[in-house]
UniProtKB/TrEMBL annotation:
DNA-binding region(s), chain positions: 32-51
Keywords: DNA-binding, Transcription, Transcription regulation
Gene3D superfamilies per the UniProt record, alphabetical: Homeodomain-like (1.10.10.60), Tetracycline Repressor, domain 2 (1.10.357.10)
Keyword Transcription regulation: yes
Stated name of the protein: TetR family transcriptional regulator
Segments forming domain HTH tetR-type: 9-69
Record-level Gene Ontology MF annotations: DNA binding
Alphabetical list of Pfam families matching this protein: TetR_C_13 (PF16925), TetR_N (PF00440)
Source taxon at top rank: Bacteria
This protein's record includes keyword Translocase: no
Amino acid sequence: MNSPPSRKELSHERIVATAARAIRRGGFQGVGVADIMKEAGLTHGGFYAHFSSRNALLAEALERAGHDSAARVIQATATRQARGASALRALVEGYLSDRHLGDIETGCPVAALASEMPRQSPEVREAAAQRVRGLVAAVRRALPKDAPADSGPAIASQLVGALQLARALGDNAEGQALLKASRRALLAQYDRESSD
């Protein structure tokens, strides 16, 4: 039998979930320990009962953000595939969706944080590298069997770049148009059933 989580485990979970949203919302530098603890409804003094350092929190929050985002992508992809979309079409349409454009706080951490990742501590950079590898692996799994071997990293790069550029334009008609054009281009190149 599984026992219910302890109070400390529940608090730890709340801190990590809060930090996972906060890093995507405000970037790594926008995440202060005091702010995270306050948003999680806990005292600042309790932080070190859960983490050895701010970097340990950031690494765990990045891992959580990646797992949460991947779960959402898997669910959205399955829904699109159930409606007849290819795996690649489902992934591209979900990743480059208007919803993902406006949902930075719960969306892909790679797109939210890619430009900041190289300037982090080794611990956080490794967690970031795992998120990038996970995204590339997800794209590779969605590719048609006859796709060139280097398509996975290329498509992942295009997905992240398109989402970042659309977010720079804003969650508006201009940003949405950029996503639509990117979807069309990717699907025309890589998906045999392409039409938008």
